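Dear colleagues,

As part of the handover before I leave the project, I'm documenting each prediction I ran so the next person doesn't have to rerun anything. This entry is a single chain, and its sequence is reproduced below.
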Amino acid sequence: MKEKSPREQSAAHQQAALLVNALNGAVASTGYWLNAARRNLPKFYPKGITVSPFNALVLGMHTDQSGYTTGLYTMFSDAKQRGEAILQQEHGVPFNWYKWDQYVNRHNSEDTLSREAYQALPEEQQKLYKGVRQREIIILFNIDQTTLPMTDAEKYRDLQQRFGSRADRGYLKSEERQLRSTVNQFVAQIRTHLIPVRKNAAGMAHFDTAKDAVYMPEPKQFEHYEDYVQELMRQVASSTGHAQRLAREGMVMKGGKAPSEDAVHYERLVAELVSGVKMMELGLPARLADDSLPLVEHWTRELQENPHYIEAIESDVNNALGVIRRAEQGEKVEYATLRTQRQTSEMQERQGPQVDARESAILVDILRTGGMAIDSRNFPSPEARNAFLEKFDLGYYEQKKNEALSMVTDEDTDVVEIAYTEALTYGTKIATACREYLPAEWNTKGSYRIADELKSVPDRSTKEMVVVVTGRPGLWT
């Protein structure tokens, strides 16, 4: 995991503090923690560009806790160009800005190009490089922190009426009808493109992981229609963590064991935050479920003590809402196994004859270790190993994994933990790449180290044994 710069550390601390304040505010009040004034989703002013889910969450909390009229934000430089100024002693809010203006050679991490240099390459050479996402922290200011309300009062009132609270916009009965129509359309898209949404006559809203379906009571069984909407959003948010989708730790059984208590608590937080962003998108307030309120103390402690907690939240909130948005836009969200099978099939069509039995066995050997070891004994020479890494596009990940592993002997325990985490990340990338190249049917001819090694097992004296895949796909012996 890349070490954060002081600016990134400060931003993460401020973002975590906003979330802690919001969650604890829910405990102190009636459970509402976001958008009690019913504003619209935060945006850049004046372009009206929407922001990523996590950034929207941060800006929404900043708007709430500062008591601003709208969720419209601007950069200092943009305000200056418009002839506006930031008021004295005003502090902005950190915004995570990502850019893709650097490209790295897939086989040589030292070989990097600017975006302009990459675009100048022939198409075939561009395939040798991949974009590197870089994070930059920029500071945004709410328009209430600028001189706009004073320099152009008419424009400011117009913005209030368009983007302010429900009181500023003026409540219209048509908004409620539009809300129900929007929610019904959302349910229809989710049913078609993500998961079944079924009725539960028993009055218990839940996501059934075994049946992979959301069960919801009728809206009339809730005290308020908004309560039904948020519970629906919570359950759909939970479904994105299913093992066949984003496979969040709190939703996945590993080795027949249930997720840890911490993972389950974290999963609940993700569901609450994702549903909160969706509620804000609808111009509705978000509140914590009654059984989530007792977890606020745990979440607060993690946010204050674990510097990586807010970073994990950013990733999972953005990914979960990315899945939901794809379904809303009419894109079928495939099961991971189906997607992998399709990708493998496509790979076979392009490279089937090039993956021989020996290479297949080596790929399986790498998968056996979860991508954490590419055994040199599988190759006749270092040159052959390098050629294998190049052929299967593993060189960059292997190098980064080894760089991380070189730090695990450091005396600083934090460095060791970060090193192991980064190594596991690259090991997972290696395993994913290997899995894509595995053929459905293997050519069983050939000899290689794994087959030779199997001749010596099982060994009764050492009580060693082995599980072997036969030449017939899906059959184990």
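Residues 336-439 form one domain. Confidence is low (pLDDT under 50) at residues 343-353, 443-448, 470-477.

All the best with the project,
I.
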